[in-house]
Design a protein that fits this description.
The chain has 134 residues and is an all-beta fold. The chain is built from no helices and ten strands.
């Protein structure tokens, strides 16, 4: 099994503390860079835009977008970089509560032929800018 790292960067984020912040109805753009120490025979590499609930009660997850980034094998020794972009919907906004939270993320998935798929994700906050306190 190849030792594989997937690094996800966002290009156009604001910041909310240590989290990347994006507004509803805006574009989220970024790059996935894959480092592997041996060749990977994969079907494809995809970027997915997801949101899910966490906490008490019924869990829910929805895939909002899916972009094919690459098809065919990944070669070792050099970084494999792929850019992605998604148009964010108007809702649901990110939320962190006592009973439930709404979490947004971009997931990169390498569909490995006849093997376990390789995934990594990066979370972000999706909400409008809040007015400054006076």
């Amino acid at each position: 099994m190849a030792n594989t790292d997937i690094d996800i960067q966002f290009f156009n984020e604001d910041t909310a503390g240590s989290d990347a912040l994006f507004q509803p109805d805006s574009w989220i753009k970024g790059r996935a860079t894959i480092f592997t120490d041996s060749d990977i025979k994969c079907k494809d590499v995809t970027a997915q835009l997801l949101w899910r609930t966490e906490g008490r009660g019924t869990r829910f997850q929805e895939k909002v977008g899916n972009v094919a980034l690459h098809q065919g094998p990944l070669r070792a020794g050099l970084p494999n970089s792929f850019e992605f972009e998604f148009l964010l919907p108007n809702n649901p906004w990110s939320y962190e509560g006592y009973y439930v939270s709404v979490v947004w993320e971009v997931m990169i998935e390498i569909d490995v032929s006849w093997g376990m798929d390789i995934r990594n994700s990066k979370q972000f906050v999706m909400r409008p800018h809040l007015p400054e306190a006076t």
